[in-house]
Amino acid sequence: MNKTKNIYALVFLIILFAIIPVLIYYFPGDREDRETYKIGFVTDIHAFRNKKNNYDIVPKSRAPFLFFIDHMNNEFKPDFVVQGGDFIEGRFREGQKSIDDFLLMKRYYDNLIMPHYHVIGNHETSGFSREEWSRLTDNENTYYYFDYDQLRVIVLDGNDIPEISPEILAPGCNHYYISDHQLNWLEEALSDADERGYKKIVFVHQFLLHNHELGIKSKGGEKIIFPDHAKKIRDMLEKYKVNAVISGHIERLFCEKIDSVNYFSSPGFLRAKKTAFSGLTHFQKLR
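Above: the chain sequence. Below: its structure as tokens.
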């Protein structure tokens, strides 16, 4: 098993050391009209404005993001683009500062000429309410799906507001949560996609594999998705043969097929400087 994992890791690293880091995934299918999709993915930008930059986004976030926009429009030209959450810094900027940070980043993001979508991250909910996020992104809810050709793309909210339960109220229990309402909604969305014969992929900001033996282990005190909630989602993804799950948040490169589901994770621009993959081109292209 370790040898196999090492081979997968080596292949993954070779791909990422290309001039433009590329994460490649083929969505298999028996439809002759469409078997592959090109997706641009960027996450954990942690953008904020400051006076030093005339209240523009700080260069360490703005420069790579503008490069990403240009590359998507003029080089990669994907079917659609997803930003995976933590679009802004949020922390210690609660209220109008974070709203203005988000609005400016959205102005840049809206320069994409193809459809583009948002995933809610924990830093957004540090900066403003979930209702405000829905308003800013023109989404009715913080979790939703859209269909692109024969592909159902499901966007989850990894820091949902849970129903009260004794486990969640236990002393020292500090996690991200998935509400029962969202779990029920997810099953309906997956079941409906199954009936239509669609391929299925899921975007969620938080990593779903912290408590899985093949996943990345959480550090002491690190806030993770409530293990019972994460397992319920993983079981559902396996049941409905979801093709891939794509995340950010943990600031780590990860690629592993577990229980028939492909899990991917990518770091953001700022944390990328601590890895071998720093630079303007730290984003992912999925095919």
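Residues 2-286 form a domain with the Purple Acid Phosphatase; chain A, domain 2 fold (CATH 3.60.21.10).
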